[in-house]
Design goal:
8-stranded mixed sheet, Rossmann fold, 9 helices, alpha/beta
């Protein structure tokens, strides 16, 4: 296998921003597959506005059905208790051959909170990370790079150095932290849920199949 990406989140609901950025990461890193992994019980988010896990998984499956490079994984739905990334990464590493390149795909906002994750330092021993920038950020933005460098040194571990081409942070004894620019798409699941509550259309923000599923199930009303 050429490599896989692990892309987790609540996907509440999945939208075109998720799909486009995942496609760009897949092509940029030459990955064979990207696994979308909806969380069952997210450790850091409230559940008041959270659709049932099976509904979020089904919307995800509907959204990616025609992309052979995308896979919907229910591994966190099958696991009891809260959904911890360290457990999911351990699972995938255990089921693939040892020489299969695996990457954990995260947004920059999530990365800058990674010190709140369970056993987060172990992740940097286990798997390279691909950090996707928000629309206003680029890998050439010195303020953004300085923020990342300071955060990594203070909250993760010392010893990471920014590569000369500024595309990744490298460490002699840890996995790499790659920085990746994605197309700026200012869509959020929160915005979509708010539009639905207002009775507004979410067409062109989510795939048509997801729009239809939301309407059929009466989600986010």
């Amino acid at each position: 296998m050429n490599g896989i990406g692990l892309f987790g989140g609540t996907f509440n609901p999945i939208h075109l921003g998720h799909l486009r950025t995942a496609q760009e990461v897949k092509e940029g890193f030459g990955l064979e597959r990207v696994y979308f992994i909806p969380s069952a019980i997210p450790p850091h988010k409230g559940i008041a506005d959270l659709a049932k896990a099976q509904n979020r998984y089904q919307m995800l499956a509907e959204a990616i059905y025609d992309n052979p490079g995308f896979v919907a994984s229910d591994v966190e739905l099958k696991r009891e208790g809260r959904s911890y990334t360290i457990d999911t990464v351990s699972h995938f590493i255990s089921i693939f051959e040892k020489d299969t390149p695996c990457y954990l795909i995260v947004g920059s906002d999530a990365f800058l909170e990674i010190n709140t994750w369970k056993s987060y330092r172990d992740l940097f021993d286990m798997i390279p990370l691909i950090v996707m920038k928000r629309p206003a950020q680029t890998s050439r933005d010195e303020d953004f790079l300085n923020t990342l460098a300071r955060y990594i040194s203070e909250s993760v571990t010392r010893g990471y150095e920014l590569a000369e081409d500024k595309s990744c942070f490298l460490h002699a004894g840890k996995q790499a932290i790659y920085l990746f620019d994605v197309t700026p798409i200012d869509i959020s699941s929160t915005k979509i849920r708010n539009l639905i509550r207002q009775g507004a259309s979410v067409k062109y923000l989510v795939p048509d199949s997801v729009d239809k599923y939301i309407q059929t199930k009466g989600l986010y009303r």
